[in-house]
Each structure stands twice: as structure tokens, then as C-alpha cells.
Design a protein that fits this description.
The protein is an alpha/beta fold and about 240 residues long. The chain has nine helices and eleven strands. It has helices spanning about 30-35, 55-60, 75-85, 105, 130-135, 180-190, 195-200, 205-210, 230-240, and strands at about 5-10, 25, 25-30, 45-50, 65-70, 90-95, 120-130, 140-145, 150-155, 170-180, 215. The strands form two sheets. Strands 1, 4, 5, 6, 7, 8, 9, 10 and 11 form a nine-stranded mixed beta sheet that branches. A two-stranded antiparallel ribbon has the order 2-3. Strand 2 and strand 3 form a beta hairpin. Helix 3 (about 75-85) crosses helix 6 (about 180-190). The N and C termini lie far apart (about 40 Å).
């Protein structure tokens, strides 16, 4: 089984343009992500999928292999597809480039113990929310996971609604997703679906077409950097670790 780790690095972020290159304790954010991904023994190859020459230059300077993707990519799935056109693998694992404290030890848990070249395979990691403020942040993807670990729905809204009980925990998408080539080919060959466009969540296209997405629940303290406040929080965490 060949598994490739890919870090999508979009320079033109909507909320924080250029955040991949922002300094965290003497290194750009993308450097910290790359160092963590390099610790994952299950990855046979690692690439950064960049859309800007500035990102490419910085990443190559610290030794990363970079594949340039086009500016027309609407989401990370499009970027993974472009990488898959030049890099053959059984599975492609995307690790978010804006989660610099995402733990290496959980990344490999997304990889199944089988190879399927016939059916689309889509998998991911999820964790329980620990901060109530995160639940109402639309930048944090919430999800309902049914029996067997299969996703019923993903949303930017808090789901499920606590109509009869609050005795449950909300689940959050963690920035690690896996696709096989069949899934990536399917995605780029279909038009965006209604719910996908409403929520602006690419993975909903698979669910709307009846393609299952499996999530493993993990223990993680990872935080995506979406605001200057997030960046300062991450800087404090990493600085404390280096002391």
C-alpha cells in the first residue's frame, strides 16, 4: 500500500491571506505543519500543494517537495486531485496547512487496512469539542456520526439540535482526510451539489451522491488558525513547548 501525505497550502486565504507564511516562533506556519507530517511513518511520500510562488520558494528552502496547483482549485479536494494526476498512490491523505499543532501520532489513524481501487474511499478524523465557543464558530465543521463511524451530515451550524437532551458531545472535523484516486476522480467529474453550495463544504458532495465518509474519533488538541487571535494562541502553545 502506498500512501502519500499532502499539505494543501493556499496562499489566498479568505480570512487571513498568506497565513501559511506567518511567523510562529521563528518559522513559518507551514514549516511547523511539515515537521509534524514528516513524523508520520505511514506516509511513503510527502508533498506540499502550493498555489503561489512565494509559498513554493519558502517550502523548498526548508527541503519540502512542492507541487504547484492551479488557481482554479475551489477547495483542497481539487488540489489533491491535481497532485494525484502526477503522483500515483493507493491513498492520498490531506493534512491541513493551518493546523500547526496537529499531532503526528493521530494522522496515520485515518488510513484503512485495505486497498480499494474499485469504489470511492473517503475517510477522516474527528474529535469532541472541548470549548463551547468553538461550537458556534462557523469555521469549525460540525458533524453527526452514525453507527459504524459513518458521517450522516456535516455543517457549519451546531448539529444535532439538543431538543430532548444535552447529554451528548458535539463532534468536530479534524484537519486530516483520506481519498483514493476513484474518489478524487469522482469529485472533479461532478458538479457542485445543492447542500455543498449552501454550506460551502466540499465533502457534502460525496454524501449527497450516497458515497459514505468514515470518521475515526481521536483525541486531539489541534486548532486551525483562522483569526489573528488563533495565531497568537498557537504561538503561545508552541513557545511553551520549546522552553
Amino acid at each position: 500500500m502506498k500512501t502519500v501525505g499532502i499539505i494543501p497550502a493556499r496562499y489566498a486565504s479568505t480570512r487571513m491571506p498568506g497565513k501559511m507564511l506567518m511567523d510562529i516562533c521563528g518559522h513559518p506556519m507551514i514549516w511547523h505543519v511539515y515537521q509534524n507530517v514528516c513524523k508520520v511513518e505511514e506516509f511513503d511520500e510527502i508533498y506540499i500543494a502550493a498555489d503561489d510562488e512565494k509559498v513554493k520558494t519558502v517550502c523548498e528552502a526548508f527541503g519540502a517537495k512542492v507541487i504547484m496547483t492551479t488557481s482554479g482549485c475551489s477547495c483542497l479536494i481539487d488540489r489533491l486531485y491535481e497532485v494525484s494526476e502526477s503522483v500515483a498512490a493507493d491513498y492520498y491523505v490531506s493534512v491541513n496547512g493551518d493546523e500547526p499543532i496537529l499531532e503526528p501520532e493521530i494522522m496515520g489513524l485515518v488510513i484503512p487496512d485495505f486497498v480499494d481501487h474499485v469504489n470511492p474511499v473517503v475517510r477522516g478524523l474527528a474529535r469532541e469539542f472541548t470549548n463551547p465557543a468553538e461550537v458556534i464558530d462557523p469555521g469549525n465543521m460540525k458533524m453527526v456520526i452514525g453507527k459504524g463511524g459513518y458521517c450522516l451530515y456535516r455543517s457549519r451550524s451546531p448539529i444535532p439540535y439538543p431538543q430532548t437532551t444535552t447529554n451528548f458531545t458535539y463532534k468536530k472535523y479534524v484537519g486530516v482526510e483520506l481519498f483514493n484516486k476513484k474518489a478524487l476522480d469522482f469529485y472533479v467529474s461532478t458538479e457542485p451539489t445543492e447542500l455543498e453550495k449552501i454550506e460551502d463544504i466540499g465533502a457534502l458532495r460525496f454524501l449527497e451522491y450516497g458515497i459514505p465518509i468514515h470518521y475515526d474519533i481521536v483525541q486531539s488538541n489541534s486548532l486551525s488558525v483562522d483569526t489573528p487571535k488563533d495565531l497568537e494562541h498557537i504561538r503561545k502553545i508552541i513557545s511553551a513547548r520549546e522552553e
